[in-house]
Amino acid sequence: MRFDVITIFPEIFKSYLEEGLIARAQRKKLLEIRIHNLRRWTTDAHRTVDDRPFGGGRGMVMKIEPIYKAVGDLKRKNGKSKIVIFTPRGERFNQKIATEFSKLGQLILICGRYEGVDERVAKYIADKKISIGSYVLMGGELAALVVVETVARLVPGVIGKSELLKKRITKKKGFLEYPQYTRPEIFSPKKGVAWRVPKILLSGDHKKIEAWREKHSKIVE
Ligand code: ADE
Questions:
Q1: How far is the CA of 6 from the centre of ligand 1 (A)?
Q2: Pairing of strands 2-7, 32-37
Q3: Which of 110, 115, 136, 141 to mutate to test the pocket of ligand 1 (most atoms within 8 A of CB)?
């Protein structure tokens, strides 16, 4: 699966995407993540990406032209692709949307900055407006990283133990997350205090363990 991220701060992404499973999946060609500097699609000497808002008011607004050109260059003609813009006014991102995205061939992610992006980008260019929560960030970059990571781990082969992943998906809906423990069985932070691992998990009884996990699962939708 291919991700194309459009941003005016490409450096933000570098170290994050060069670590761990995301990096491994890129080396294995399961993921192709391209970070693009929006200024590449400007034509003036100052490489302008923003302008003053019509109607007045504070701050600057990101212009439509460079974004339109960037998307036109990056969108693949063959295969399924979706164009996403990040905004706190968008639809709340969740596991269901991530699953839909993971079936695409390409995801183009547009990161806004300043006071926002010319609304015509959301209206005419983007297929989906996404918010990662009801709070206001300084731009879409962190939201893009959240989406890349959540979608990437659903791409077959990325998190390795695909069997484990399958088991954790319920037959009904959503995604199960149960509590996990590892050694030591008893952790003693100070004398007379013992933090124990639930006995059932040490029993070796797989039926009971599965039932316990089901009971303690939270469905993430
Ligand atoms: N840009 C600013 N705040 C945001 C949020 N909560 N989600 C997505 N994009 C944003």
A1: 15
A2: parallel
A3: 136
Whole-number mean pLDDT of the chain? 93
- The residue contributing the CA closest to ligand 1 atom 6 is 88
Residue 163 amino acid letter: E
Question: What is the value of pTM for the model shown?
Answer: 0.92
Smallest CA-to-CA distance from 105 within 182, 4, 23, 206 is with: 4
Contacts of 207 (CB under 8 A, 6+ apart): none
> What tokens does 192 get?
């007379």
For 179-199, the pLDDT digits (tens) are 999 999 999 999 999 999 999
Residues in Cβ contact with 18 at an 8 Å cutoff, skipping those fewer than 6 apart: none
With CA atoms as reference, report the closest residue to 127 among 94, 101, 160: 101
Task: State how far the Cα of 54 lies from the Cα of 110, in Å rounded to an integer.
Answer: 22
Ligand 1 centre from 161 Cα, in Å?
Answer: 32
